[in-house]
Amino acid sequence: MKEEKPCCAAAAARKVKRIMVNGQAVGVAQLDEICSKVDAMGLTSDEEIGRALLKEVKIYNYVPAGREEEYRRAVLEEYARRT
Question: 37 pLDDT exceeds 60?
């Protein structure tokens, strides 16, 4: 899978998707690409998938200390909706 970099700030902004984290709407950059990358890993358990998703999310996004588990659950729910 070839990773395409946004050409400008406007293109990067279009790659931000909103998800609900503990009842609050949060923008997550590169979410489509993250989900595709983790799906291609062929992981089978929710625990493995959740860890991989959170690891990738933290590359492109700020995840506040102490909220990692909330983000992991929210991104895993979004991933499950997409697959």
Answer: yes
Question: Residues 60, 29: contact at Cβ < 8 Å?
Answer: yes
What distance in Å separates the CA atoms of residue 57 and residue 36, rounded to the nearest whole number?
12
Yes or no: say if 13 and 31 are a contact pair by the CB < 8 Å rule: no
Residues with Cβ within 8 Å of 21's Cβ and at least 6 positions away in sequence, in order, are: 67, 70, 71, 74
Token couple for 45:
């358990």
CA dist 21 and 7 (Å) reads 28
User: Domain limits of the chain?
Assistant: 9-82
Q: What pTM was computed for the model?
A: 0.87
Measured torsion, CA atoms of residues 63, 54, 61, 10, in degrees rounded to the nearest 10? -150
